[in-house]
């Protein structure tokens, strides 16, 4: 009899604890822990600056700004989100990011084309067949900076329906993997030749980028939700110690899919 009473008491305790857990999940009515993946096509560029006084450096910056423009990059990775409440969550992730900028199309006429930053010489006429040559019409240089990004951000949610408005603020640690330049040569006959080489400069390995986003999420089931967030990232630290340096920034449309673990 004593064993039976003990068994009944243990069973009641287990059932009671299980009900408490279910009631706790039912009371909070939101997903506590989520894992997700995201991808963001990005509009990338840089801001040039100098710590030196004098018109020479300011004139160089103006000339470079007139010659260079944005490039299309991307950011993609995985994230873990922990929701403190229905309206506030914390997220950390690991991202692969391609940032940078580009020159405008350089129109070539006579002589050889010289890369204005590295001094490389490109022939304006290159044989495309054994019996024919075609003049080089345009030349473009695209600077690519490949980073491992570690974003940490606070997310704020507004709304109670399937579609909610969201905004976030955070900071991203940028770890540089590689820096390359891709030259794009366009010929008069319509052919295009792309060549990529490593940049010969000593860029800083670490960067810090504050981030801000505003968008919406859509709960498609009890376990899955989709997010869409226009996002801005700006590098606080310049990328190189030089008389004229640059801070990288990007604006993208970040799309994600999350799965609720708890």
What does this protein look like?
The chain is α+β, with helices and mostly antiparallel strands and 262 residues long. Helix content is 15%, strand content 60%. The protein contains two helices and 14 strands, in the order αβαβββββββββββββ. The strands form two sheets. The chain has an eight-stranded antiparallel β-barrel. A two-stranded antiparallel ribbon has the order 6-7. Strand 8 (125-127) and strand 9 form a beta hairpin. The longest helix is centred in the first third of the chain and has 27 residues, at 2-28. It is elongated and about 65 Å long. The model is unreliable at 7-12, 18-25 and 124-132 (pLDDT under 50).
Summarize the structure.
The chain has helices at residues 2-28, 55-67, and strands spanning 33-50, 68-69, 71-83, 88-103, 106-107, 113-114, 121-122, 125-127, 133-158, 163-187, 192-198, 206-219, 224-234, 244-260.
